[in-house]
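I hope you will forgive my troubling you with a question about protein structure. I set the record out below, with my sincere thanks for your time.
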Amino acid sequence: MVAAALAAAVFAAIGIVVRQRATMDVPRDQGVSTVMWSTLLRRPLWWAGTASAVTGYAFQAVALAYGSLLLVAPLMVSALLFALPLSARLAHRRVSRGEWGWAVVLTLALAVFVALARTKPGDYEGAEVPAIVVTGICLVFVAGCLLVALRLSNWRRAILLAVGVGVLFGVVAVLTKLVMHIVREGSMLRLMTTPVLYVVIAVGVIATLLQQSAFHAGSLRAAVPAMLVLEPVVAVLLGEVVLQEHLAVSKPAAVALGFAVAAMATATIALGRDEGAWEEELEAQAQSRVPGPAEASARPRPDATD
């Protein structure tokens, strides 16, 4: 289970970094528009990043088939540990001592979490209807975030979109757990007839579209930590409320887990801010190389005559 979750984090990290690179030269004012998507759909680099993200999701589904949502969801923040050196290599920079320090903190916190966390199975049979109801509520909430975000710009828009992304991917994790429970039972007829399967596909597509817009909406140093921290938080909360999963640990272990989770959140925010800052710098450089409307119109056309 842990190996599958870490593999999911690796491919998710590759998908995040590659898809962010694919959108850097899209004009900033087209960050939430059909122009951005029509541009990205023609780029092999974006498709490669998307394929990596889908592969990561497949590994996450395998992890959820054999492990508790309360264990798998927090492990996904380890994607930062893999995104950090990859992003640095593509940007031709070195990982700073501070970033390595936070990476060590995150690694140790994850190790403590995996070593101490023990869970009891939830009530998956009776959770399908509540999960769909909660999904509808979350979609309404995210739609509200999107409507407000469209009226804003820069870091405010980025934060709202990132909140929507974190909420939706947390919901996707819950729905995926239910789907994989059905798969493990071996009932293909039930799998194809349950609405949960089609709801998770729809929510996954919406979350991916919104995530790409969040990458390009404004302040990445604000958006990246928000979406990375919020996703496991929403998944764990819904896992407890909807799936009725819960931790079964002693009081000393619970205290240690509390410190580990706090360290994970702190390290994730710190690394996410650093990663976002570097991505912003690279995006600014890419944007500076994109000709503006006046500049483009001033260029001579190939068929222009003297």
Observations:
- The CA atoms of residues 172 and 204 lie 6 Å apart.
- Strands lie at 119-120, 246-247.
- Residues 292-299, 301-306 have pLDDT under 50 and may be disordered.
